[in-house]
Amino acid sequence: MMRQRLLKTLAFACGLLAVTQLAAGQDLTPQQKQRILKRFPQADRNGDGDLSAEEIAPIRERLEKAQQMRNKKPKQTQNRPKGPVPTHANLQYGDHKNAVMDVWLADANEPTPIVVAIHGGGFKGGDKSKYHGCAELQACLAKGVSFASINYRFRDEDPRGILACLHDSKRAIQFIRHHAEEWNIDKERVAAYGGSAGAGTTLWLACHDDMADPNSADPVQRESSRLVVGGLMGTQATYDVLQWKDILPLKEPWTPEMEKASEPDILVAYGVQSMNELNSEKGKAIRKERDMLAWMSSDDPPIWMKNNMRGGPVARNDQNHRNHHPEHVACLKKRADQVGMQTVAIAPALGLQPHPEISMINFFFKHLGVK
């Protein structure tokens, strides 16, 4: 620990270049020497205001030992693969560099169900590695259920905004079905789940009408996009975000000034150039396509959803509270009850606490027909 502190202190005192030069036995500039002296005045043993080679030698020796100890330390855990090694790693499923997936195929004689994990990150970040070694992966493989974790393009990498992210995930589901025979997957038992943006994407896939195109020249596009069950953690109720002011309890009334301030983010999210375009027939079609509430119907698959965030009024600047407020779950449950869609809704802050509470993975196994 002392050696690591020495490295950090030297880096602060004289810069990374000087630390490298010290370790390599190279001479320091007068300016670098003065910076070290300022931080370590005791190094100037003869008090002449300069550092001789003899006075630098003990510092160099300690630095070399510190670096040797650091090099002996095992690499950080995050740089190691977590959990079982994928059967297929970084498999390209689409036309974008981020359209890749990792797949773990269960060892089974009969075609297996598959659970697909979709990471969150506001459609601006995140990575499929979040689910490497996760409890759901371990439980699935133990039960003979295959598993996949996907990446997708981010909203600022395509003029369609969030819709492009959603359609990447749609293609990932179709891609898995396209390889069902090769991978020993049961096409009729495909599930998905995720957190935040991954949860909203799962909801969109679950509620949207089947997006298979039987006449497509691309065989992947001919496959079904439907799920048999979905899991949502910290979901949003709809990606027609202009509806959120009617769903969430805002601290301040929604004003034209607030809408104006939000315009840049709204335009990027919807993939349009202006609010006039958003309010046009084209814009209304985009909003409808992203509105999971409007897509919900009685023939949609069962959904498990959970939100442990606090309730109460939402401050205009609290994006995390706005994106993950438990009222999103309450809104979805209300709509699901109206259309006759089966849900498990858990949001303790709003009194939504079913007893007994079933875990998401056990809910999945039930609807996937896994014993």
Description:
This protein is α/β, with parallel strands linked by helices. The protein folds into two domains: 2-73, no CATH class; 84-368, 3-Layer(aba) Sandwich (Rossmann fold). Helices cover 42% and strands 12% of the residues. Strands 1-2-4-3-5-6-7-8 form an eight-stranded mixed beta sheet, with helices on both faces. Helix 1 (2-23) runs antiparallel to helix 2 and helix 1 packs across helix 3 (53-72). The two termini are 50 Å apart. The model is unreliable at 75-80 (pLDDT under 50).
Mean of all residue-level pLDDT scores:
88
Uncertain regions spanning at least 5 consecutive residues: 75-80
How many helices?
A: 15
In whole angstroms, the N-to-C terminal distance is 50 Å
What is the string of helix and strand elements? Answer: HHHEEEHEHHEHEHHHHHEHHEH
**Count of spatially separate domains:** 2
Helix content: 40-55%
What distinguishing features does this structure have?
371 residues; alpha/beta; Rossmann fold; 8 strands; globular
Give a short summary of the structure:
The protein is α/β, with parallel strands linked by helices and 371 residues long. 42% of the residues lie in helices and 12% in strands. The chain folds into 2 domains: 2-73, no CATH class; 84-368, Rossmann fold, CATH 3.40.50.
Topology:
Elements: H1 2-23, H2 30-39, H3 53-72, E1 88-92, E2 100-104, E3 112-118, H4 135-142, E4 146-150, H5 162-178, H6 180-183, E5 185-195, H7 197-207, E6 229-233, H8 244-247, H9 256-270, H10 275-278, H11 281-289, H12 292-295, E7 303-306, H13 319-323, H14 327-339, E8 343-346, H15 360-368
Parallel strand pairs: 3-4, 3-5, 5-6, 6-7, 7-8
Antiparallel strand pairs: 1-2, 2-4
Helix pairs in contact: 1-2, 1-3
